[in-house]
Amino acid sequence: MRIALARNPHTPSAVLERLAHDRHHTVQWYAVLNPQMPETGLRQLAAQENEQSGGRTHILREVIAHHPNATEALRAEMTGSGTCRVAIDCATMATALRRAANT
Description:
Strand content: under 5%
Distance between the termini: 17 Å
Largest sheet: none
Number of domains: 1
Pfam families: LRV (PF01816)
């Protein structure tokens, strides 16, 4: 049920923010991929991931950096810390993530 909610593009942003902190990583993953995830939720997840990883880069932070709702400030903060390892630009990656979320 929670995975379906996390994947649904009509799930309210407040629900997505809660799902992003679910105990199951699959639910978190789909919540982050959801194009309706608000920037505040992305920022919280990026901070949580950084705290847990000790600053090492992880795929979740790359996804957050390229999320269509990531602000330029968040994107710059994350790419400045070495998060982005994608050779394509953020807009192209954001499009790819939206497609992945809809599959």
